[in-house]
From TrEMBL:
One of its GO terms (biological process) is glycoprotein catabolic process. Residues 1-36 form the signal peptide. The lineage of its organism: Bacteria, Pseudomonadati, Bacteroidota, Bacteroidia, Marinilabiliales. Residues 52-286 form the Glycosyl hydrolase family 92 N-terminal domain. This is Sugar hydrolase. One of its GO terms (molecular function) is carbohydrate binding. It comes from Marinilabilia rubra. Monomer. SUPFAM superfamilies: Six-hairpin glycosidases. Pfam families: Glyco_hydro_92, Glyco_hydro_92N. One of its GO terms (cellular component) is cytosol. Keywords: Calcium, Hydrolase, Signal. InterPro entries: 6-hairpin_glycosidase_sf, GH-type_carb-bd, GH92_a_mannosidase_put, GH92_N, Glyco_hydro_92, PNGase.
């Protein structure tokens, strides 16, 4: 087994470890506040999977995860927001911080760019302020200090004490409505600030509005630009106590009356409160209108029972978490696993009103389209594992997600690349919605128009942007004409393989042959002399000089990586890559080097390249499939070795427990699947390659009352190698299983051991193959 000293860049921060029990053993006064309402759902304690979720995992280091209160795939994510001090505050919150500006209604989780943070609401007392302050003078306004020992979080619930004001804050949510509960001290100037100017990261307001509709209702809009170039958010706020005084600020001055509009609108509600008095707020959001936001409140939370909403949120999380029931003697593994499920079910998010109405990418309003519309598609990340996971544990949502993508195609002429709040950001490379749409079709999902789906993948691959014109003309992208040319071409080839298979299923042999040829484009980039993928210039020659370690963020030849990492990005044709390398022995020798090679990436390397094992980077998605590739040359035991190391070292139950950006669920989806012993190397092939199960047992609930159970006998941190396997009681000699086998229900059993069985999976017929389901 590999030793820690053989690997590089674990990058953990010291002194931040703590247990859930310690963190939740809060001071007595805080506990009394936290227990004001029932904290548990109606499910029996032994079925409460939320107790294993620690939302703080990934809030430190570069995890960038959301901390706050939400429901699975919910449109709102109310949570705490710090001053944004840099890249590690992309979600608005970082574990290292101690100053809170307030509680925004929308947050991203795990992204590498910051946005949202809309409608910042903050309770405070004393002198009137319209802003929290600023980074240079952080406590010059209404911002407050807070402490982790006066803070708690669980799925669907968040609580904190604002130390400067002796105010307790609780948050929970439904799908489209945030529910805030503030407990004030005795004070004649107890205030609630509503700030429409401040956002997170790239966000910048364009125009905002706040209007008081009656003594308990305020509403308005926030139009902004940033990562989402043209975001239209409408909101409504209903307070449980009639407004005693409203003061407004806009365009750098105070505004009289009950309405304000401008780039920097802020309002402050003032109350005279008794000690321990509670004021509740319900904040509805809508992409359509503030009237719709108010209807969302009336439809989803028509009462003022905070404990009921919290309990319902917890039940919703339990329903999703219980879809995989695990058994393991290590409690920290349970926390890591169920927190990973929690993270994987935050996005995509609903982007419609309670009645189904939504605003399209074309900015038109669509009523009752017949499906739930979603946004926040981080597809360059999530096509690899999170969407394949959805086809197993979220089958009821897959058709809606595909229909959302097809609607985006109809509105903007191509499938989403990285879609955010109805906006195409074009972030990252490739057209990674293609394998997601194709995979759903291959697996028999039929709640969408298959002809439109086929049309969409073809049209998306045939536009002339981001080097595709060169792909069509030359079969490669010249590095002197297009940045990140190698990464783009390799990602296009992966998707083109899926289009070729789609065309075969649709009976279009001409397109099948065309896209099969395009899927081989990676061959042009392979240099047989160095055996690396290399950038090609307009004259057809490789770029010189060449350094396989070098990485230049955003403007180099590789996207958030280097040639060492991208040389293996051929998940759709591993056997073809093996041939290019010179055969199995040459491939394996080179692949061994991948996990030990060290070199200087340069000063301009991407910060995303983390979790290094040699040059393998678990902290960034292009490497996620790679360790499984040993199985293709009959050395599955080496895959087991690497996969178990990654799970044990790069996934923990601590705040810094993610080695890189969560990326809207992908980092966690990798762990969920890998911990059960299998992973989709080619995300649209329906084949899952065997690794090394960290879990002792996992049972997946499937449609029609079926279950698929994985059992790892004699499993331990030492016994990491598969000695033998059985599927439904029959010997399993091959090193893969299929989607059909999982969804049919059954039992996969591993016999584990401390030394490798080097004969397991060595036969050519036992190795992974590209195999689509029989459904189509």
């Amino acid at each position: 087994m590999f030793k820690l000293s053989n690997f590089a860049d674990k990058k953990r921060k010291a002194g931040l470890g703590f247990s859930l029990m310690v963190r939740w053993a809060l001071p007595a006064l805080f506990l009394l506040s936290a227990c004001a309402g029932p904290q548990n759902s109606s499910a029996p304690a032994d079925e409460d999977y939320t107790k294993y979720v620690d939302p703080y995992i990934g809030t430190d280091y570069h995890g960038h995860v959301f901390l706050g209160a939400n429901v699975p795939f919910g449109a709102v994510q109310p949570g705490p927001t710090n001053y944004i001090k840099g890249w590690d505050w992309c979600s608005g919150y970082h574990y290292s911080d101690s100053i809170m500006t307030g509680f925004s209604q929308l947050h991203l989780s795990g992204t590498g760019i910051g946005d949202l943070g809309d409608v910042l609401i903050t309770p405070y007392t004393g002198e009137l302020f319209f802003t929290p302050g600023n980074i240079k003078e952080p406590l010059s306004g209404y911002a407050s200090m807070y402490s982790h020992d006066r803070e708690a979080a669980e799925p669907g619930f968040y609580e904190v004490d604002l130390l400067d004001y002796d105010i307790n804050v609780k948050l929970t949510a439904s799908e489209r409505v945030s529910f805030h509960q503030y407990t004030f001290p005795e004070n004649e100037n107890s205030r609630i600030a509503i700030n429409l100017e401040l956002g997170i990261g790239w966000d910048s307001p364009v125009n905002t509005k706040l209007i008081q509709l009656n003594d308990t209702t305020l509403a308005g809009f926030r139009h902004s630009k940033g990562w989402a170039e043209d975001q239209e958010l409408y909101y409504a706020i209903v307070v449980s106590k009639p407004v005693e005084k409203l003061e407004l600020h806009a365009n750098d001055k105070e505004i009289s009356g009950t309405e304000a509009e401008g780039r920097d609108v802020a309002g402050v509600l003032t109350y005279n409160t008794k000690n321990g008095e509670t004021i509740n707020l319900k904040v509805g959001i809508s992409p359509v209108s503030h009237e719709a936001a108010l209807k969302n409140i009336e439809s989803e939370i028509p009462h003022w029972n905070f404990a009921q909403v919290q309990s319902e949120a917890k039940e919703k999380w339990n329903k999703e978490l219980s879809k995989i029931k695990i058994e393991d003697s290590d409690e920290s593994v349970k926390r890591t696993f169920y927190t990973s499920m929690y993270h994987s079910f935050i996005a995509p998010i609903l982007f419609n009103d309670h009645d189904g109405t939504y605003r399209g990418t074309d900015k038109k309003i669509y009523k009752n389209p017949g499906f739930d519309n979603y946004s926040v598609f981080s597809l360059w990340d999530t096509y690899r594992a999170n969407h394949p996971l959805f086809t197993i544990v979220q089958p009821e949502k897959v058709n809606d997600m595909i229909n959302s993508m097809l609607a985006i195609y109809e509105h903007q002429g191509k499938l989403p690349v990285w879609h955010l709040m109805g906006n195409e950001t074009n972030c990252m490379v490739g057209y990674s919605a293609v394998p997601v749409v194709a995979d759903a079709f291959f697996k028999g999902f039929n709640g969408f128009d298959e002809k439109l789906a086929f049309e969409s993948v073809v049209a998306t691959s045939m536009n002339d942007e981001f080097g595709l014109d060169y792909i069509k003309e030359r079969g490669y992208i010249p590095a002197d004409k297009e940045k990140e040319s190698v990464s783009k071409a390799l990602e296009y080839a992966i998707s083109d393989w899926a289009i070729a298979r789609f065309a075969e299923k649709m009976g279009d042999t001409e397109k099948a042959e065309y896209y099969q040829k395009r899927s081989k484009a990676y061959e042009k980039y392979f240099d047989p002399e160095t055996r690396f993928m290399r950038p090609i210039m307009s004259d057809g020659n490789f770029r010189e000089p060449f350094n396989p370690f070098k990485s230049v963020h955003e403007v180099g030849d590789f996207t958030e990586g280097n040639s060492w990492q991208y040389t293996w990005l051929v998940p759709h044709d591993v056997n073809g890559l093996i041939e290019l390398m010179g055969g199995e022995d040459a491939f394996e020798a080179k692949f061994d080097s991948f996990f030990v090679a060290t070199g200087d990436m340069g000063e301009k390397a991407s910060a995303d390249i983390t979790g290094l094992i040699g040059q393998y980077a678990q902290g960034n998605e292009p490497s996620h499939h790679a360790a499984y590739m040993y199985a293709y040359v009959g050395s599955q035991w080496k895959t087991a070795e690497k996969i178990r190391y990654i799970m044990e070292e790069f996934y923990t139950d601590q705040p810094d427990g993610l080695i890189g950006n969560e990326d809207c669920g992908q980092m966690s989806a990798w762990y969920i699947l890998s911990s059960m012993g299998f992973y989709p190397v080619n995300p649209s092939s329906s084949v899952f390659v065997l690794g090394s199960p960290e879990l002792d047992k996992a049972t997946i609930d499937l449609p029609e009352g079926k279950t698929f159970t994985m059992v790892a006998h004699n499993n331990s941190s030492e016994n990491i190698y598969i000695q033998s396997a059985q599927l439904n009681g029959n010997p399993l000699e091959r090193t893969y299983i299929t989607y059909d086998e999982i969804m049919s229900g059954g039992k996969l059993e591993f016999e584990m051991g401390a030394t490798p069985n080097k004969e397991f999976g060595t036969a050519p017929e036992a190795r992974p193959i590209e195999r689509l389901p029989e459904t189509r």
